[in-house]
Amino acid sequence: MSSISLQGLRHVYANGHVGLSDVDLDVHDGEFLALLGPSGSGKTTLLRSIAGFVQPEAGTLRFGGKPVSGPGVWIPPEKRNLGMVFQDHAIWPHWSVARNVGYPLRLAGVARREAEVRVRSVLGLVGLDGLGDRAPAALSGGQRQRVALARAIAGAPQALLLDEALSSLDEPLRARLRLDLKALTSEQGLTSVHVTHDRAEALALADRVAVLRAGRIEQVGTPQDLVRHPASAFVASFVNDAVLLEGTWAEGCFEIAEGLSIPGARLEAGPCLGPDGLGQTALAVTAAVSPLDLVLHPHIGDGGSGRTRAGVVTSSLYGPHGFGVSADWEGRTLRAHVTGWAPRPGDRVVPEVLRARVFASQTAGTAASHPELVPA
Ligand code: ADP
Ligand code: MG
Known about the structure:
By secondary structure, the protein is α+β, with helices and mostly antiparallel strands.
């Protein structure tokens, strides 16, 4: 069993920076989990805690149910049997590819013959068949990262830990290695934790994604969960590029400002609003609107658009599946995915929200001033 379980993991650096605060997380046996979050959110600290390079000051870490770090327990990194790949591949430039890949096997005392067979086999797995005699300098950046990956899996680790392992590569190499990494880990049934700040990469690769913010896990879920049912306004905006609109909930309607409101039937209450969801009381709330759920209609004349006021397109970027459009609407920036017509900067548009998820307001009128918003 190669599950990884973290309970109440906490780490504060000597300079007072919070690395992790009370992190609970279960990575299942054979699962590919992505750790996603902005810079400084604690992704590397979490990964290094699993690896044993950071010793958390509280909490328990278990591999396959067995504690490796916790009260009275400390298994050092070299005894944890993990494979690691970093952004900077850190392979020895003066060693051949095969020697680099075989290094963990030599350390483990694996017989030479057996090690050679294993090295050939993992070079095949990462798409470097026949390149064992090459010097790293004679490889492309993507190939060098494959060497690092081969070295990480050579010793049949119980889990693979990747810290921004693809971030230094350019497209299309990166997309290629992403696909291969996904195929390799699922064929080998490797439990993997992949740190990235790139949401598209996390959503594309992972069975589940854990979103970190300021040392805490804000949400763990499948990519579909995070996109369709974000647990907070932060997750909606970080994972799905949602526009966050402040407004007031009253009388069955969400009023953003005069001239832009969202009917209650198009709203979903986020979990922080508690079991009763949106009650009848007037509340300051934040609506998160995905660019896919915001329609920008071309503004025709003055009377055609009802009472919704028009906004102005500020940028419009063509893509194979439509235009990525930003528009200024009464001082707010709206983002929408537009198909069916070609907006240009300066065009006047009328926004329509098809669906929004509503959270307790992050600014004025937070949960503190609305005790009814605090989850039971
Ligand atoms: P991420 O990988 O998500 O960018 P990190 O885990 O590196 O985040 O950092 C989390 C927090 O801990 C940040 O505030 C960062 O400044 C701090 N931090 C990270 N490493 C150290 C360190 N070695 N010493 C002091 N503070 C650190
Ligand atoms: Mg990091």
